[in-house]
Structures are given as structure tokens and as C-alpha cells.
Amino acid sequence: MSDNPPIEFEFPSLRRWEAGAAPYIHVKESGKPGPTVMVTALTHGNEVSGAVVVDALLAAGLAPRHGTLIFSFNNIDAYHSFDARTPFKSRMVDEDFNRVWGRLDQPPTTTEMKRALIVKPFVERADLLLDLHSMHDDCVPLMLAGPLDKGVALARRVGTPVDIIRDAGHAAGMRMRDYGGFGDPKSPKNALLIETGQHWRASSVAVAKDVTARFLAESGVVDAADLPAGWRQSTPAQQRVVEVTHAVATKRGNYQSVRPFEGQEVIDKAGTVLGHDDGEPVTTPYDKCVLVMPSSNRPLRAGVTVVRLGRLA
Ligand SMILES: [Zn+2]
């Protein structure tokens, strides 16, 4: 019996969006002054909630009132490689599209580097970027605001989800959301990355719709009334910011969590055992430690981050 999680919504057929400003990239100009705003889906090919949203907005013919709106299905080849028997494999073709952004000056050797070079001029045009992701495990939605104050401020203006994560990205390579002006504190450019929940939960689509509607309205390129009815959810009473201080990677892929975690648990005491890596205890380094995106229920490869640890800001 398969222990793959259930797929709760239908995957969109995206071949109709191949022809655009570049393959699977669509640019809509208002002809009026305003920001260039980009919404991207499928940076990871199996993270489909964002693709449902971009597909729906393209199908609805959403056009900007001011500035320019760009939509992209980033790792479309990975999406098209989806096989329900091995659903996690379609995250990428050769490598992680979201780790190549620091080495695009090098000759492209992988499907993802080649695709990133096609997407790059559009990312460089964008003043504001929303990158739609989802999670392997059943975790609560998180807004990854990057390391800078401006990212946290934008996440607060969007107003949802509850948890804003301030993080420096991955040692393994630069993310798209940190590329160029997005990662420069002096640049007005700004980017957000939403993790909507588990990849194939219907609730992840609801989160992707809500966040995208709020982001586009906040950007000023469209009016809130231009967006599909019913996408906005209620606004949480409060958001909280968690600053990531540690990323715990498994040495050899032999990590066992002491129990299932769903993420954003606050562990009261320093020294609490979270799990064992190769038999060595992994403990909380300080009191009131927040567990960010714990992976407690899957086979792991060596070097994979099993949990990030953070402080409430
Ligand atoms: Zn992702």
C-alpha cells in the first residue's frame, strides 16, 4: 500500500499557457505607470496549489490597471513529469530550481539552470515578487520573508498567514526570492515566498488564493474587486515573526523525530530533545524555541534540513 498523501484537488492542464512572452510566462501591460508585479508557481514542480491559482488568474484574463503583471510557471518540465506513483519526484528534473540563483553566470548544465536563464529577465524586471510554494509535510502555512526588514514589512501588509519566517535562505544555493534587488536592503524591490501547507491539500489551494489576492491588491496593480470572488479568507487577529537561528541537517539521512510535529510549536525549555540524528540527540538551544518546517515523517537524504529553529521576534 502506498503511504503517499492523498491528492485532494485536480491538477490543472497547463499546456494552453505555453505560448507567452517566453514559454509558460505571460506579461500583461496596463500601459499606465505602476510597478511590475510577478507571481510565480511551480518553482518546485510538485507544488501545485500555486499553479491552480496562476492558471485561474490567466483563465479569468486578469489584467493590471496600473503597471505590469507577470505570471510564470517556473519548473514546468518538472510539473509535466508528475507520476502519481512517485509524486515527490516531480519537485525537480535535475536539481532544485530554487538553489541556482547565485550561479546563473555559469554555463547552464541542468534543466533548472536553463529554465532559470529564461525566467531571469522577468524576475529582474519585477519590483514585487510572490513565489507560491507548498510543503512536503502537513505543516501550517508560513510566509518566508527573507532576512531583511522590508520582507517582514511586506508580509505584514499582506496580513496573512499567522506565521512570518525571517530567514537567510539555504547554504545550498540562492533562492529566487533573494536574487538581485530582493536581497539588497537598499533596493525598493521586495519579494515573498508563501508555503501554503501540504502540496496536495485542498486547504493549500485556499491559502494560495487568499495570499495571492491580498498580494496583488496590496501591490496596487489591480483593485481588490478585480480578483475572483471568494478568494479572500478572514484576516488573522495577529501575525507573529519567527527569526530562524539554526537549520538542523541530517548527517546521513538517519534522523528520527521523538514525535510528529506540525510546525510552529514553541518548545519551552532549552535542552529539550527533538529527535536523534545517527543516535545523537538534537536539542533546543534556548528556551521558547520555535520549530520551523520540521520533517518528522519521511525518509531523508543525507544533508537534508530536518528542522529549522527560531526565536519569536
Ligand atoms: Zn517549494
User: What is the C-alpha radius of gyration, as a whole number of Å?
Assistant: 19 Å
User: pLDDT under 50 segments (min length 5)?
Assistant: none
Determine the strand fraction and express it as a percent band. 15-25%
Strand order of the largest sheet: 1-3-2-4-7-5-6-8-14-13-10
CATH architecture name of the largest domain: 3-Layer(aba) Sandwich
Please give a handful of descriptors for the protein shown.
313 residues; alpha/beta; Aminopeptidase; OB fold (Dihydrolipoamide Acetyltransferase, E2P); 2 domains; 14 strands; 19% helix; binds zinc ion
Can you tell me about this structure?
The structure is a single chain. This protein is of the alpha/beta class. The chain folds into 2 domains: 15-226, Aminopeptidase; 243-312, OB fold (Dihydrolipoamide Acetyltransferase, E2P), CATH 2.40.50. 19% of the residues lie in helices and 25% in strands. The chain has 5 helices and 14 strands. It has helices spanning 49-59, 76-80, 111-125, 149-158, 202-219; strands spanning 25-29, 36-41, 68-73, 128-135, 142-144, 163-166, 190-198, 240-249, 255-257, 266-267, 273-277, 280-283, 289-292, 305-312. The strands form 2 sheets. An 11-stranded mixed β-sheet has the order 1-3-2-4-7-5-6-8-14-13-10, sandwiched between helices. It has a 3-stranded antiparallel β-sheet with strand order 9-11-12, with no helix packed on it. α1 links the parallel β2 (36-41) and β3. α1 (49-59) packs across α5. The protein is globular and about 60 Å long. The termini are far apart. The model has no long low-confidence stretch (mean pLDDT 95). The structure holds zinc ion (ZN). Zinc ion binds at residues 43-44, 47, 133.
